[in-house]
Amino acid sequence: MAYLTFNRTKLKHNYKVLKALFDQHNIEWAIVTKLLCGEEVLVKEVVDLGIKEICDARISNLKVVKELAPADVQTVYIKPPAIESIPELVEYADASFNSEFDTIKAISEEAGKQGKMHKVIIMIELGDLREGIMGEELMDFYESVFELPNIKVTGIGSNLNCLHGVMPSTDKLIQLSLYKQLIEAKFGRDIPWVTGGTSVVIPLLQTHQLPAGINHFRVGETLYFGTDIVNHGPMEGMEQDVITLYTQIIEINEKPMLPIGELEANPQGETFEIDESLYGKTTHRAILDVGTLDISSEYLIPFKDQNIEFVGASSDMLVIDIHDNERGYKVGDFIPFHLKYMGALTLFNSYYIEKRVIDN
């Protein structure tokens, strides 16, 4: 049976590396837990690191954090809330990212009902064209929000590289910092956070290109994968295998390299193209106990046997080419894979994949 391991020792190591980096630059930061899909045993490992702020994009996941975390851990909902979810939002999130006045007004009304003060971080559009208000609307927007009761504006923020791949730059982040200064100067209000930092911004911090005004980060991918997202490689000093997928071989056989019979599209809509040079040739194929229901092969990274080739997948089985089977694989053996972020996300969201917390 396929299963995921979540390495507590390596998670703690990566956390210490990041904490030291942010402490050195006097930057506050939060851990993003949306990858863990509210799995209580995994969220507890993050809470136990000692972080003081946890972010997620699902209110149900923040509820898990609230049940596990001490009172001094702040929960932050990091996408504009749906109107119908606002009662639960105010109950389980101490703060939220917002870009619509009507939504903030509804939060204000609900916070009044619950006797709470809800913190708001207003998101600004910097070019990636996901969430965020346009710069020319900024002053009027803030003026309206500042008039609402039960709301405390604690930050201004932005997301980059999330939709169209627009990369963060010193110029864009300076622009975000300047927006904060303009708001504070016009309204005489203190805006504590400029939350422009995510995993993709860490390289700017390391190379001393981050504007001084950016004082808050939200980090998920680099913590769990130890990756330098900008340079598409490992982050120096960090572990890349906090998370590993183990897949079990359920069949091995020497088979023809080409299918036999009339071909049409498979259930995934794919049409197989015949390479006539492969007629009459055979290879060893292994079937693994995961399929497209669990993960796409494009998110799997073989690391112990880099000669593995992906042949294809159905809903519940993945077929790999192991060539001459020089390693002597047999039915029942496990083949491990490192994961790309989106692949790990689908696996953590699967009821069919066991999750195991381990130490080194």
TrEMBL record:
Cofactor(s) recorded for this entry are:
pyridoxal 5'-phosphate
Q: Which GO terms describe its molecular function?
A: alanine racemase activity; pyridoxal phosphate binding
Q: Which Gene3D superfamilies match?
A: Alanine racemase (3.20.20.10)
**Residues of the Alanine racemase N-terminal domain:** 8-226
Key words of the record: Isomerase, Pyridoxal phosphate
Example GO CC term: the record gives: cytosol
Lineage, top-rank taxon, reads: Bacteria
Pfam families xref list? Ala_racemase_N (PF01168)
Q: Does the UniProt entry include the keyword Phosphoprotein?
A: no
Q: Signal sequence: where? A: none
- This protein's name: Alanine/ornithine racemase family PLP-dependent enzyme
Q: Which organism is it from?
A: Croceimicrobium hydrocarbonivorans
